[in-house]
Write a structure and sequence with these properties.
mainly beta, 8-stranded parallel sheet, 2 helices, 13 strands, 38% strand
Length: 158
């Protein structure tokens, strides 16, 4: 995927297997769940501004050009809502504002496992916006390297 604004958009795509996807989607490259992913799915991908620069396509930007700065300031590589049992292995994300963004959906928080993966050169590697650690996110043999420390939105009080 070279230079799309958004990459893969899935609504209720249970039991999917997606592998060997790579590219430079500008704003939101990977899956936006519609709060209803409740079956085990698997994925492997790589997203970085560098793929577009290395593409040899007409009009490709220079490595580290304005597109990379825009992605670093605005992009969120993974937006996960309710996603039970998502198995993510060999996922490599670099150069986005937020690498993995766990968000509270209408039907709950995400639950995903990342294995042998890396989120680097992002302002925030992982953001738990689902509310105070209420996600079921697991990272094993992973590198989470962001400029800002992990942050959580406080849980709502009644």
């Amino acid at each position: 995927m070279i230079n799309p604004y958004q990459g893969i958009l899935a609504y209720s795509a249970a039991k999917h297997v997606i592998s060997k996807v790579f590219g430079s989607p500008l704003y939101n490259p990977a899956f936006r769940w519609m709060s209803s992913m409740t079956s085990v799915s698997r994925r492997m991908w790589r997203f970085s501004p560098d793929y577009w620069s290395a593409s040899q396509l007409p009009g490709m930007p220079v490595l580290g050009g304005p597109h990379a700065a825009w992605m670093r300031a605005n992009g969120a590589a993974e937006r996960l809502f309710r996603a039970d049992g998502e198995a993510c292995m060999n996922v490599f994300i670099s150069g986005y504002n937020i690498g993995v963004y766990g968000q509270l959906g209408v039907n709950g928080a995400p639950a995903a496992s990342f294995y042998n993966s890396s989120v680097s050169n992002c302002a925030t590697a992982y953001l738990d916006a689902a509310g105070g650690g209420n996600t079921g996110m697991e990272f094993t043999l992973c590198t989470l390297d962001g400029d800002r420390p992990p942050r959580r939105r406080p849980a709502c009080k009644e």
